[in-house]
Amino acid sequence: MTIREHTTADRTILVTGANRGIGLALVEEALHRGAKRVYAGMRSPVAHPDHRVVPLPLDVTDPAQITAAVQKIDWLDLVINNAGHGTYEDLDQRTALEHHLAVNLYGPYDVTLAVLPLLSRSRGRVINILSLAALASLPVMPAYSISKAAALSLTQAQRALFARHGVRVHAVLTGPTDTDMTRGLDIPKTAPQVVARAIFDGLEADQDDIFPDPMSASLEPDWDDGAIKTLERANAGLLPVAAPLYTNLSYTFVVDQPPEQAFAAINDVRAWWSGQVEGATDALGSEFTYTVPEIHYTKFRITELDPARRVAWHVLDSHLSFTANKEEWTGTTITFDLAERKGGTEVTFTHEGLRPDHECYSVCSNAWGEYISGSLRDLIQTGSGRPNAFEGEEALEAVHA
Question: Which of 55, 208, 212, 312 has the most C-beta neighbours closer than 10 Å?
Fold first, then answer.
């Protein structure tokens, strides 16, 4: 059972193409899951009975409307680029291809770029609604297929580049869905409501690529370790790292033990981290403190606890004796992401918000390296951590070195 804070509850969301089909279903599902506010972008806005819905005039091919819509949003956690266009044609008219690209490629590009400052502030997310036609062209809808293939490439590029802003990007690869666009296809189709539920489920499961219906789900089991994802990760590694826009401190290691064992070790904080730890460290919503006298105090709240998948602690308060800004950690977040890899587990630790321009970065990165790649890794592998590897006088000497 997942015991994780709802990633939709209390969030502010923008949905484009929200008047019908998948877009309307996404609005309703977001409300069902407790969204604080849903901005519903439509070319012809209509009122919604729920006061949390704010209809916005939004034609994604109109830069002026995009600007006007974004000016009405003061906070944003998630943008869902759903507005789309698809017709049946023979690829014999350039204008048809141009219109598909205007809606399905340049539309999400322009909308996302306009809201990126908001998403950077909230550490938010982008969801691009794509199609299996991005992977294999539908000959009856060639311009649509071409535009979705381009939008998939856009999504992969955004995923790599926006990580430097602290923004996550997700792709939704839909199969046939029962909307106006597919009415002429005599094939099995999935209801938009089912697709919308699966999209939010995938978001809450932290999936980069979401397969929300039976046809697309057939690709999911081998996707993460397949050729496309492997090449995407390799290409992302080509980005220069010398001057990132937004870089969080992060460490990754792989152990032979299963994710469940790694998850249990992470939550046994006293077994791998030195100092005085007070409070429960293994209950969602609980708060605990970490103290090294005269050096370091931090108060955490456990905001995510997804068994064998993810742990997150948000820093409520902090005091570092060795930095000019004593509260440099306050407002940052510690995350542990677990992924099964060939019988073992890949563990990714990230201190979100701790960047190279912070005074603490050098000292804190050394300390975290000792605890994460050393003590925690040993605890997972052998059952015994090394919590005293970097504490007390040794830590103080390192700070003043």
Answer: 212
> Which CATH number is 12-236's, of 3.40.50.800, 3.30.450.20, 3.40.50.720, 3.40.50.300?
3.40.50.720
Torsions phi, psi for 220 (to 5 deg): -65, -40
The per-residue pLDDT for range 202-242, each reduced to its tens digit, is 999 889 999 999 999 999 999 999 999 999 999 988 876 53
Domain residue ranges in the chain: 12-236, 249-400
Rounded Cα–Cα distance for residues 218 and 215 (Å): 6
CA distance 169 to 124: 9
Strand order in the sheet with 78-81: 53-57, 37-42, 12-16, 78-81, 125-129, 168-172, 209-210
Rounded to 5 degrees, φ, ψ at 255 are: -125, 165
Q: What is the pTM of this model?
A: 0.62
Overall size of the chain counted in residues = 401
Q: Which residues are tagged catalytic?
A: 144, 148
Look at residue 4 and tell me whether its pLDDT is greater than 70: no
The CATH number of the structural domain formed by 249-400 is 3.30.530.20
As a whole number of angstroms, the distance between CA 245 and CA 239 comes to: 11
Mean pLDDT of 116-139: 91
